[in-house]
Amino acid sequence: DVGVINTELMLADLDSVEFCSLVVRDCEVALSPGVGFGPGGEGFARFALIENERRIAQGIRNLRKGLPKLG
């Protein structure tokens, strides 16, 4: 898909729904759990890059700040 990145989750103790919930809470970035795209999607998260560049840059900053908390 254009503007979509599937990223493999590196946190083995979380499923994709749990991971996405934490990212929304800690990073204020919305993403979709991979399992929502079928059983083969478990272990992945989907980021849809449909915002303008400024909002995407803010999302990246939020991820950089919030993801270390999940580690």
Walkthrough of the structure:
The protein has 71 residues and is α+β, with helices and mostly antiparallel strands. Helix content is 42%, strand content 17%. The chain has helices at 16-27, 53-70; strands at 4-8, 32-33, 44-48. A 3-stranded antiparallel beta sheet has the order 1-3-2, covered by helices on one side. The radius of gyration is 12 Å and the shape is globular.
- Mean pLDDT comes to 81
Question: Which strand order do you get reading across the main beta sheet?
Answer: 1-3-2
Number of helices: 2
- Fraction of residues in helices? 40-55%
How would the global form be characterised? globular
Sheet having the most strands: 3 strands, antiparallel
Span of the ends, CA to CA: 29 Å
Question: Roughly how many Å is the radius of gyration?
Answer: 12 Å
Class computed from helices, strands and strand pairing:
alpha+beta
The oligomerization state is: single chain
* Beta content: 15-25%
The residue ranges in which pLDDT falls below 50 over 5 or more consecutive positions are: none
Total number of strands:
3
- The SSE string, one letter per element, is EHEEH
Question: Can you give me a brief rundown of this structure?
Answer:
The protein contains 2 helices and 3 strands. By secondary structure, the protein is α+β, with helices and mostly antiparallel strands. It has a 3-stranded antiparallel sheet, with helices on one face.
In terms of topology, how is this protein built?
Elements: E1 4-8, H1 16-27, E2 32-33, E3 44-48, H2 53-70
Helix pairs in contact: 1-2
